[in-house]
Amino acid sequence: MGSLITALASYCDIKQRGGRWILRIDDIDPLRTDHRAIANITRTLHAHGLISDAVPRQQSSFVTRYERALQQLLGLSFYCRCSRNELKDIKLYPGYCRAIKEKSSNCAVRIRVDNRRRSFADALKGDHDYVPSDEFGDFVIWRKDDLVTYHLATACDDAMDYSHILRGDDLFEMTAPQLFIMEKLGLSPPEYAHIPILTYADGTKLSKQSRAPALDTATPEVNIRHALEFLGQNPPTNLMSVNEWIDWAVRQWRLEAVPPQLKPYIASDLA
């Protein structure tokens, strides 16, 4: 249900603007990519009337783009030999390897940050100021196992391919470092909106780790209505088909109606 809420919100928001809604699969880590899960995601979205306006994009197809971006950023970066264990209890990277310019085996690439204050606007959360050196410090843009990081891949794709990004606010803290990368690459950022995520009553996010129940694709109409209720859109109670629900949702969509915090997920409420 949490994933449906975010997908439905992004679909309605961009469709009401007259834009195209594009499904992207973040599959940059081959060891963590489950192709059966990807197929299931697509089937579930289709069952709920959420169909990509282009062939779904897979980040694994854009490795050359990320490698070019890395080459652009090398002059602003350094090689890091630190292990996760060495940095286990450290919040901000302390600069141990900042002087290393030569690549060697088992090195990640970290981008150097500065202490200049910046800001960005979020359509729901308002303006956010940040100082890179205080908020996230030198961060990894290329992994030791020669894979691009989520930050670099997402910064490239979001700036190059999309005008608007609507995602869960569990990713809000990712925005500033991604904007820092866009700035250093000379890319124009998209517009952002971060919506609250669905949680249990104790604040735990619904996820595979928290054993959140899968959506019942046999009842998509009911699922869509519940998702719209969570999003504060005041859906009607009359019976409608999936396509009728989606048409209604796009026409009536109001981003400003999304509550600052979604009501907790209780399975019995969705019966």
Describe this protein's structure.
With 271 residues, this protein is of the alpha/beta class. The protein contains 8 helices and 9 strands. The chain has helices at 2-16, 35-47, 63-73, 132-135, 150-161, 172-185, 220-230, 242-252, and strands at 24-25, 57-58, 77-80, 108-111, 118-122, 126-130, 139-142, 164-168, 191-195. The strands form 4 sheets. The chain has a 3-stranded antiparallel β-sheet with strand order 3-4-7. A two-stranded parallel ribbon has the order 1-2.
Brief description of this entry?
This protein has 271 residues and is α/β, with parallel strands linked by helices. It has helices spanning 2-16, 35-47, 63-73, 132-135, 150-161, 172-185, 220-230, 242-252; strands at residues 24-25, 57-58, 77-80, 108-111, 118-122, 126-130, 139-142, 164-168, 191-195.
